[in-house]
């Protein structure tokens, strides 16, 4: 319990540290969330179903999908934060 108290005091004292920690926690929560894990078979199925697909093109599609997902979630976070 003392560790959580020290952690809480540390995060309350430093705005920069708090923002960095919340950013990292947000990324971790997206990566391990069961809601977003369901998207993995969808993108694999989509890429696997393409004919004449090169490794470069598959990487590009996956990258756009991942960035789009993170941007969407970040936008929802910004809207939620602005609403208080």
Entry keywords:
84 residues, mainly alpha, 5 helices
Can you walk me through this structure?
Helix content is 87%, strand content 0%. It is mainly alpha-helical and 84 residues long. The longest helix has 29 residues, at 55-83. The mean pLDDT is 80.
Could you give the count of β-strands? 0
Rg estimate, integer Å = 18 Å
Classify the helix fraction into a percent range: over 70%
Order of helices and strands: HHHHH
Q: Which regions have little confidence, pLDDT < 50, spanning 5+ residues? A: none
Q: Report how far apart the termini are.
A: 29 Å
Instruction: Tell me the β content.
Output: under 5%
Reported for the largest beta sheet, the result is: none
Average pLDDT value?
A: 80
Shape: elongated
**Count the helices. How many?**
5
Class from helix and strand fractions: mainly alpha
Summarize the helices and strands and which ones pair or pack.
Layout: H1 2-13, H2 15-32, H3 34-37, H4 39-48, H5 55-83
Helix pairs in contact: 1-2
